[in-house]
């Protein structure tokens, strides 16, 4: 996240488990691999 902050991004979240966890817990429309 530090790299992205240095690039000017302000609103960042880190999701433990990556895209699979995001799809499972937050947005089921995101395809899982």
Please tag this protein with its features.
single chain, 33 residues, mainly alpha, 2 helices, elongated
Please characterize this protein's 3D structure:
The structure is a single chain. The protein is an all-alpha fold. It has one domain. The chain is built from 2 helices and no strands. The model has no long low-confidence stretch (mean pLDDT 90).
Quaternary organization: single chain
Which structural category do the helix and sheet elements fall into? mainly alpha
Query: Spans with pLDDT under 50 lasting ≥5 residues?
Result: none
Largest sheet: none
Global morphology: elongated
Enumerate how many helices there are, as a single number. Answer: 2
From the alpha-carbon coordinates, what is the Rg to the nearest angstrom? 12 Å
User: In what range is the share of β-strand residues?
Assistant: under 5%
Mean pLDDT: 90
Q: Give, in order, the helices and strands.
A: HH
Amino- and carboxy-terminal Cα gap: 23 Å
The tally of strands reads 0
Which percent range fits the helix content?
A: 25-40%
Tally of individual domains: 1
How is the secondary structure organized here?
Elements: H1 2-6, H2 18-25
Summarize the structure.
Helix content is 39%, strand content 0%. The protein has 33 residues and is mainly α. It has one domain (1-33).
